[in-house]
Amino acid sequence: MAVILCECSGKLSSSLDLEGLTARLEGKGQKVHVEKDLCGHGFNGSLSGGQENGPLVIGACWGNFPEAGCREQMRKKGLDPFAFTVVPLLGEQSADRAALLLDAASERLKLFPGSSEKNLRPRFGNTGGVFSRRQFLSIPKMQYEIVPSIMPERCNSATRHCSVCFGCCPSEAIRTNETGHALIEKEKCSGCGICTRVCPSGAIHYPVHSASEILRQVETLLTGINEAKDRQRAILFTCRKSGLFSRDYWDGGGDIPEGLLPVVVPCVEMLDTFFFLSALALGASGIGVLACAGACCPVKADHARLRAEKYLTEAILAKLSHSEARISIIEASSDSLSRDLSSFCEKLADLDPVELPCEEGMAAAYDNHSLAELLCRIDSSQFVLDGCAAIPTGMVRMEDDSSCTQCGVCARYCPTGALSLEEGTTKELRFSYGTCIGCGECISRCPEKVLRLKKIIDSEQLSQKLQLVLASESAVRCSECGRPFMNQALLKRLRAAFATPEADSVLRTCAECRERAAFSVL
Amino acid sequence: MKSDIGNDLLSGCRNVASDRSRVYGFLGVAYYLPSEDVVGVLKGPSGREIVDNIREIYLVTPDFSKMLDELRETMTSLDNLLELQIEYTRLFIGPFHVPASPYESVYRPGSGGRVMGESTIRVREMYLSEGLDLSGSVRDLPDHLIAEMEFMSYLAGQEALAWGKDPARTLSCIRKQEAFIDEHLQQWIPKFSAAVCNNARSEFYRLIAEITRRIVSLDRDYVKAVRISLERGDI
Q1: Is the alpha carbon torsion for A132, A137, A142, A144 positive or negative?
Q2: What residues in B contact A122, CB-CB < 8 Å?
Q3: Which helix (H) or strand (E) covers residue B13, if one does?
Q4: How far apart are CA B95 and CA B84, in angstroms?
Q5: What are A23-59's pLDDT values in tens digits?
Q6: Of A65, A92, A364, B206, which residue is most buried, by most CB within 10 angstroms?
Q7: pTM for the full model?
Q8: Predicted ipTM > 0.85
Q9: Window 200-219 of B, Cβ < 8 Å to A
Q10: Which DSSP symbol is given to A449?
Q11: B32-58: per-residue pLDDT in tens?
């Protein structure tokens, strides 16, 4: 791992104490190089030296760093072309903060699993940015982007008919192949990462932007280089296109307040309560989400979902008796963006610090991206919460268990396996709270219409991993051999369906005895 | 300046198309029964050049890059012709059990693992649509791996000729390649490649099968990207 800093015509060094920054980073064990005019040439120079072998963190002057050219250089050297990250440092005043940003980016990069063909997608030409003739020559005609892919060994689409991600994809890029396995059509994918948020089995692999990588960066930002620990630190989630890192913003007098630390995600629509609560539990004093108007990006989101997630986080904070005004969705396109950001920070300064005492091993919850598991690890007073649209856990109840025929349709179509039909000595329909995502598939599939779903968070029952038996067998025994062969509800249904005396007598014996009776006539 | 960039892109696309044509041609050669001539091509400068071409055209991840280096090493040391022929025959021809049959229809569902299935007919129809057919001297089926690779090589070559001259022909060549990869190569090459990798005793066939699989999947993404940009009018 090495850090390369740009010194574009002295731009970075005019505002920032580069020597101090270098010293701080070297104190953390990083190798640091300062490169003249890095943003201009996409570092032909420093890589040709051949001294770099590992992943790179690039401190660039502005957001439109020529990444494609850089990727090409890495590729030609036989390095992983995606093993670098760019940290825009334009307008950065404090060497402390710059060191923190670079260090956090490098921690995030350390978790990058390496690119594979499954996650690469070629694309032609224009990157959308403005580039000079010299840059143009160094930009390859074909460029590559990282897109998510589905890990077939984790995906439940073929085994459990899970289709949760299908409807959520704004570019309709997810479909099943001929064997029933879900796959992402690379060429349609916009890379927003919303599918990683909704997948209940964590089957979507999105290198660079996985929850564990993003939260690792958040964690380092909040706990890393600890020179001003008592200072409030808030996280600002933003996408690359929000304009925060554009030259226009800075030239127009824009600024990012000192206490606000930006974290780049592919699209803010991929964020949910899990991310917000994790960041707060890691020590953030607040969370800003920079929401673009949606017109510029392929997702074209109205952010209704994001607002619902914000509402849920606030509701949970209120239940944990914390002040709820910690989260703010800030319009990126607003003319007063700079003012909005600083007023958000000022508002946070008046609040008491958040304390969400967290169990050890929270990092394990990142991987599963499960709010239920996270809530179990935040040890605090018990609470029950319902009535929020974004609640990710559901409770299934049986309204009338005498009508359940235990056909098993609900269990077969449950995408997470929260409902299961256990056929041991007695037949039981079991439900496990915490695994249920409240998708409602069982409700719409149930032929008897006896199941009811409520979206609810009950933290006590979550941590106890509540298991319910929704229906257990009340067996009907064969009048001939005495073995159980059907349950009461099914018998009632069949009697009602074939209301004749013949059917009544047939339904008294099991299939084997009926067969025997038929043969004895012969 | 604008037109400069335009010309640059066009000639870039043309070069990539002709390079891809050579890569497919090379993959075809690699699956011929090894003779003095075949091994001569593999060991010669063009074999080494192709490996570099693959690096140029596709975004090669470090593990794939290592595999290409290994292939280059292996190819230069292909000395024992007889041993290679024996291995080739054992893997692809028989006489009894064929561990990795090089015919598409064997791997397609519905053919029952036999040659000359429905896909064989459809492959030949695609050849005929381009005015091509297997020449009388080839006593083999149209869905043999070599024939399919050579067909891709032909289409990419035609695409290279059409770039900048005949946009309609360019697009039709690209669409045909996309359809051929989607409907044929991608449907069976992964299974074939796994069969070779699991059964090969020779390093060369193991590597070339794995590389074929990766190239087909990389090329699929590439062709789709070109098609989308062409349809959008970006190029």
Answers
A1: negative
A2: 59, 221-222, 225
A3: helix B2-30
A4: 16
A5: 888 888 888 888 777 776 655 545 544 445 578 888 8
A6: A65
A7: 0.84
A8: no
A9: 214, 217-218
A10: -
A11: 999 999 999 888 888 888 888 888 888
